[in-house]
Design goal:
45% of the residues lie in helices and 15% in strands. The strands form four sheets. It has a five-stranded mixed sheet with strand order 7-6-9-10-12, with no helix packed on it. It has a three-stranded mixed sheet with strand order 8-3-11. Strands 1-2 form a two-stranded antiparallel ribbon. It is built from 15 helices and twelve strands. It has 430 residues and is of the alpha+beta class. Helix 1 runs parallel beside helix 15 and helix 9 runs antiparallel to helix 10.
Length: 430
């Protein structure tokens, strides 16, 4: 082997080792996954305690860890902490240029994980939604309106022939339209409220009942129910292309909730329809933010490896001594392939859907239970929820297995007989 060939081989090996060494999770990433696991175990306070110091660190995972923390704090009814977390994420998500300069150059040359995580479009929309929901719960309808409007950002559409970004299109995020309509209604802007309710129905016809103007005007209790598990990022055998799973058909249709008030079934009618299906949304190319650089690097890397292999075989047959060139092509291809590994960071604690259940109850305290009859393991019982004489109270419920209550309003005022998860907690969904 010549000196030049040896130098090329050594360089390729060294770079490969550097890339391999950079692929493992950092201690902070491992700790974040422990916080996520605590969330899925129903230990929301513990999850928030784990995630809080990570969310304070201004690194490339700042937005992601604040979204995770916001989810945990919401489920733990610590709305101050949740607002702070989602507001920090919101400010970066809606800023411009955070991935310009050295970070984006590094992402092209080495790894996308160097980039500040801002999430896929559906993740950004949900961060805006949760911040708006916190303001709505607090009757701060102007700030809620602003956050819900920010959840309705323009989406990019693609030219199927060139796979290029071809246009900006209006959002089809009906959940934000519903909540925006409610905000305008509370602010006395009925025309704007009706326009948003009509938009939601135009996007998703089965939301006609939950978008009914009169139903929303008369309700004095709104239940906002998170349900199911959101999409997960997946890669191909090379780890180079990002997709989302599971497909909606793989897990079946979204099951519908029922509501019981003081032991009697509440007539929810068609108001219990899912406002969004994040599994389906993630399959929509308009809601994906997959960097085409990754695909280009993957294809280019494969081509260089193939070119090097063919050139090497040809030279061997012709007894040619151009091995250095062959190794350079193969080495460059391997480096490109290695650097095209997908950024699989994701907001794991997103639900599959959100239900908006407007109720009209007699003023006073009520015991309210939300059930999913198709899966009797999933329900949640709340005692002493207040229906006001004037206005409306909004209650956020996060439903998952082993988190049934009974709970008492206000939260943390009385420890329920059985809270959190049983000893044998299943792992987070993969």
């Amino acid at each position: 082997m010549s000196k030049s060939v040896g130098w090329i081989a050594a360089t390729v090996a060294a770079c490969g080792m550097l890339l391999i060494g950079g692929c493992g999770p950092t201690p902070q990433e491992i700790r974040a996954q422990q916080g996520v696991a605590a969330y899925f175990a129903g230990a929301f306070s513990q999850s928030a305690r784990i995630l809080q110091p990570l969310a304070a660190k201004t690194d490339e995972n700042f937005v992601l860890n604040n979204c995770r923390l916001g989810s945990a704090a919401m489920a733990d009814y610590n709305f101050d902490q949740a607002e702070d977390a989602f507001l920090k994420a919101y400010e970066v998500i809606n800023s411009v240029g955070v991935n310009q300069g050295g970070r984006s150059v590094g992402a092209v040359l080495v790894s996308e994980k160097i980039k500040i995580w801002k999430g896929e479009p559906f993740e950004r929309a949900m961060a805006n939604f949760y911040l708006g929901l916190i303001y709505y719960i607090r009757h701060d309808y102007n700030n809620a309106r602003a956050a819900f409007e920010n959840a309705l950002f323009k989406l990019r559409d693609y030219d199927p022939k060139t796979d290029k970004d071809s246009a900006r299109v209006d959002s089809n995020f009906a959940l934000a339209n519903l909540m925006l309509g409610r905000c305008w209604q509370r602010l006395g802007e009925d025309d704007k409220a009706k326009a948003n309710f009509d938009r939601a129905v135009a996007l998703v016809p089965w939301l006609r009942d939950v978008a009914d103007f009169q139903t929303n005007a008369e309700s004095n209790v709104l239940l906002v129910v998170d349900f199911g598990h959101g999409p997960r990022k997946i890669t191909n055998a090379d780890g180079a292309f990002v997709g989302f799973g599971p497909m909606p058909w793989q897990v079946g249709p979204i099951i519908l909730p029922t509501v019981t008030v003081d032991g009697a079934a509440y007539p929810v009618g068609g108001e219990n329809r899912p406002t969004v299906d994040l599994l389906a949304l993630a399959q929509d190319r308009r809601w994906q933010d997959i960097d085409t650089i990754r695909a280009i690097k993957d294809i280019a890397g494969t081509g260089l490896i193939a070119a090097g292999a063919i050139d090497s075989a040809t030279n061997y047959r012709n007894n040619n001594s151009r091995t250095g060139t062959d190794l350079a092509l193969i080495g460059a291809g391997l480096l490109l392939k290695a650097s095209s590994q997908a950024d699989v960071r994701q907001w794991e604690t997103l639900p599959r859907t959100v239900f908006l259940l407007p109720l009209k109850l007699s003023p006073g305290k009520h015991d309210i239970t939300v059930r999913f009859p198709q899966d009797p393991r999933i329900y949640q019982i709340w005692r002493d929820m207040i229906a006001p004489t004037d206005g409306e109270e909004t209650y956020y419920l996060h439903l998952q297995l082993y988190d049934t209550g009974p709970y008492y309003w206000p939260p943390h005022s009385q420890q329920p007989p059985s809270s959190g998860a049983p000893p044998n907690v299943p792992p987070p969904p993969s």
